[in-house]
# Entry
Amino acid sequence: MMRRDKRNNFIRYFLAVFLLVMLPALAGAQSTPAIHFGTLPVVQALPLFVAAEKGYFKEHGISVELDLFNSAMEKDVALSSGQIAGYFGDIMTPMVLNGNGIPVKMVVTIFSTPPNQRMFAILASPKSPEKKLPELVKAGLANSSNTITDYIALKILQSQNIPVSQLNMIEVKSIPIRLQMLLTSQVAAAVLPEPLVSLAEMKGAQVVADDAGKGISATVLAFHESFLKERPRAARAFLEAVSQAITFINKNPVEIRPIMNRHCRIPEELHRKFTVPPFPKLTLPESGQVMDVYHWLRAKGIIQKQMDYKQMVADGHLP
# Structure
């Protein structure tokens, strides 16, 4: 009887020690806050939506909430106020935030147009008498100043040896309104992103130049510097999940189409036709492009702060 009592006491002691050690750890795991990550409903962000739907974030031990925004400005405000830990976007917006005292750093490039894939284009309106780029930019190009599409249009003109002084830009901030003005020939030409480029083509507009293979329109994932310092393992796990999603997209474009149609605002007319783009392996943002955009922003007076590449891009987080 005494031997049995000793054994029972030992079991109770073991369980007590086990619970004493493990309960705080389990409670800590359960209380790990979710990563709120901001994104836009665009094609370039597809790996984020796939990682969420396929459960890749959970597989890598993190809880992620994708916060959807309708504009880059809303997203910037959310990051500045601490509502989100990071976000998807063009390479310009993290620089502007950084230049204004918000310590946000780009960690990877998630998409960049290969030679056979466009993401932005200059289109002639269906009824425009001019179909050549030099004449179109003089007649009037609908675009939005001091934005990534402004920069892309400039680089496209430079690639065609067209002086910027010849550009007659018509300020149209809203992309849907820009599309409508193009299709109704209220403007001779406009700069649009995909999939609206393909939609405009279906309705009679003509692509006269695009960003394919020019290395001018990369999109990135960026995090607040405090998140990278406080939760580096979570940041790496986040990128590992995104990398896994990219691999799945590239191997299974047919299966991915419904996810793209749901989350990336693909017009209904293009649900079966718009190509699921291939995504590159995650890499650090290219130094030359980062600094070129930075110097353009400095020349425009949008950024006053002197910065170098390492102040804008965080190394060491690639999966």
The two ends are 58 Å apart (CA to CA). Residues 120-210 form a domain with the D-Maltodextrin-Binding Protein; domain 2 fold (CATH 3.40.190.10).
